[in-house]
Amino acid sequence: MTTELMLLGWTLVLALGQILLTALLRDQETGMAYSMGPRDGAAPPPRPVTARLQRAQANLFETLPLFAAAVLVAHVAGREGALTLWGCWLYLGARIAYLPLYAAGIPVLRSLVWFASLAGLVLLFAAILAP
User: For 43-98, how does the pLDDT look when each residue is reduced to its tens digit (9 = 90+)?
Assistant: First the structure.
């Protein structure tokens, strides 16, 4: 297994962790009866941290398919190298840093870290598309 595929695997672990963390906090807010029921009634609004984690999760899921596809295309096409390695590390590292920054409500640094994750994607795309 290549390092890039391993980093993709760890990114998927991060995604699962975000799902579980957000669900845990939301369950604490709504109660287990609501969470395990049909959820037909309106739930109370999420607390600020839970809402931020929900948005961070949605944000990850916007770029995760692109990241996964790029890693897999690079692997299948034999285009793995320095660009893909740096791109994967940058994407995963930025996504890990992004989560607590977003949860804490830190605005500017959070956005800079988000751009760093996009830079990781750009490195992957460059590796795939370079002649």
Answer: 889 999 999 999 999 999 999 999 999 999 999 999 999 999 999 999 999 999 99
| Angle between helix 107-129 and 82-103 (nearest 10) | 160
Read off the CATH number of the domain in which 79 is found: 1.20.120.550
DSSP one-letter string for 36-78: HS---SPPPPPPHHHHHHHHHHHHHHHHHHHHHHHHHHHHHTT
Provide mean pLDDT across the span 108-117.
Answer: 98
Q: Is 88 in contact with 120 (CB distance < 8 Å)?
A: yes
Burial of 122 (0-12, 13-18, 19+ CB in 10 A): middle
Contact 63, 118 (CB under 8 A): yes
Mean pLDDT throughout 28-43? 88
State which residues form the domain around 33: 3-39+46-129
